[in-house]
Amino acid sequence: MEVLLDNLIPATLLVLSPTNILIMLAGVVVGTVLGALPGFGAAQALALMFPFTFFMSPEAGALFFISIYAAAEYGGSIPAILIRTPGTAAAAVTLLDGYPMAQQGKAARALKISLYTGVVGSIASSLIFLFAASGLAWIGLQFGPSEMFAVGVFGLSMIGSFFGNSPVKGFVATGIGLFLATIGSSGFAGLRFTFGLESLMEGLPLIVVITGLMAMPEAFRLLMARKGEAGLDLQSIKGADREKNHVGWKEMKKLSPTMLRATVIGTAIGSIPGPGATVSSIVAYNEERRASKHPEKFGTGCDEGVAAPETANNAIVAGALIPSLALGVPGSGAIAILLGLLISKGVVPGPLLFERNGLLVMAVFVGLIASALLMLLVGMAGVRVFALVAQIPRYILGPFVLILLIIGVFADQTYTPHIIMALMLGAVAFWFDKIQMPVIPIVLAFVMGPIVESNLNRAMVIHGGDLSFMLTRPITMGLLLIALITVVLAFRRSSQARRSGTRPATA
């Protein structure tokens, strides 16, 4: 805590520098625009923007990415409210009441509630993040290679357990990600799985894996879209009836209990690797309906029905950062890309990050608040402009997105085989979607694989090749036992779901 607070003023000055303000403003605009595109979520937006971080410092890159992440969660609500087409999966819950409000001539009210509650959720969860994350910093002195190996195994157990229709698919996908991470030079045992190909000697670049698995399938779907999509009714966002579209302090005060509950839910679920914004939105919506004195109004266009999911899916941004920065365990697919950015800049997430890079952690905290305020300004000024983006026909948008992805992959190392790799991974990911094989665990495992392997090798060297360190070090043994319990419970839940005839929730 003291380490972080010592960096509060320097981090604030860093965030408020003109250059970083412009970077965050660009991130908010990009995130909102991409979030408003049906089919593009925060993870896809970050994957698309990854090449633009090559020449940024770790702090600037992190600020850029968290701005995109937060804004994308808000941007997804725009088409959900206006044309009943969620820009992100989490926004599918928002349309339950947002779209009926638009049909009642209250589209402007729904958009304002979405924006205001999203900003409140982001700021409130940032404050929670400061205290929750900093409380974990003291653990850093207790963590050596063996403990970090156990943390990695625990993270992999969570990834495999919470993604996909079944833990079997989740762990298969996790295994695929670990395999991809072993391609190339290990640094310990020479070359692996290169099959004599020069292009694989250095392994698969992170940008290739992220773009290929997460962004390319969306580009393919856009290319396959047909003509005849309905455009936006721009008249619906003018808010002709000022009284019923007005959202002021009185309305926000009325929604304060809703925002409080949703903030806690979003931050808590975000800190668990796997569930993501969609689950937090669903839980927040259901809990709000249970707490309401008039639950029958939900689904007909009530303010709380928009406020709950929007607060939760914006609060999850800070919540997902807690395990990511403090323990090196990604809280979502988008955060996995953020971890990939930090690793590519030479910053290793984990307990020691608070001691070694306290300025970066505090800059992220201050940046979350600053990006939320920028999102408020951008949302108020440009909601009508952003709505136009969702009007672009998908079949026209597809070629531009694909070209942008190809340019981004090539610009990384100006190496043509990387384009082929990304296209091939994209085709595989597109097929995986058809068979309901989750691809996010592949990316998460690819990011965490080198961390697990390198720390295991270091621990083996330190202990002379004796694996008994897993049983003699309390933290290591405890984390490995928790990982084992997580796996067993995941398969038990799946088995119970099959016997009862229901399907487990898909993360």
UniProtKB/TrEMBL annotation:
This is Tripartite tricarboxylate transporter permease. The chain crosses the membrane at residues 20-40, 52-72, 113-141, 147-164, 171-191, 203-224, 325-347, 359-380, 392-409, 415-432, 439-456, 468-491. Keywords: Membrane, Transmembrane, Transmembrane helix. Residues 21-444 form the DUF112 domain. It comes from Ancylobacter polymorphus. Pfam families: TctA (PF01970). The keyword Protein biosynthesis does not apply.
